[in-house]
Design brief:
Thrombin, subunit H, 131 residues, alpha+beta, globular
């Protein structure tokens, strides 16, 4: 788990060259990797909101560590759009220094099979998940 978090932090802060990249194409290829998040209390009341993004075809996603979830609360997510089927996420780890947290979508959600983002396209449609 620490390996995935370390790789994700490196990828997050690596410089990228935007030369030759078309903004509309990048957005259209990666929008489904966005996860809209909300922290809910035990009664389902929304306490905080944020976003994260899927970093692996097996459902790991990154968000800000300052989007805290206390033991009596839960993190819920909707993949690729603001309104849709909400799923509970499981906490995997965090790094306070970089303000990064790693969460995971439930394996049963099946969201990533239809994802067209560049990461999932390579990992799922290429026949194997990249780790």
């Amino acid at each position: 788990m620490k390996d995935i978090l370390a790789i994700a932090v490196v990828l997050l802060f690596s410089p990228h060259s935007g030369k030759g990249q078309d903004f509309a194409r990048i957005v259209s290829q990666n929008t489904q990797a966005i996860v809209y998040l909300q922290v809910e209390d035990a009664k389902g009341g929304v306490l905080n909101r944020g976003t994260g993004f899927i970093v692996s075809p097996d459902g790991y996603l990154l968000t800000a560590d300052h989007l805290k979830v206390m033991p009596t609360q839960r993190m819920r997510g909707v993949v690729g759009k603001r309104d849709g089927n909400e799923v509970d996420l499981s906490f995997e780890g965090s790094d306070n220094e970089y303000d990064v947290a790693l969460w995971r979508l439930p394996k049963s959600a099946g969201f990533l099979r239809g994802c067209n983002c560049a990461l999932c396209f390579r990992g799922i449609r290429g026949g194997r998940a990249r780790r």
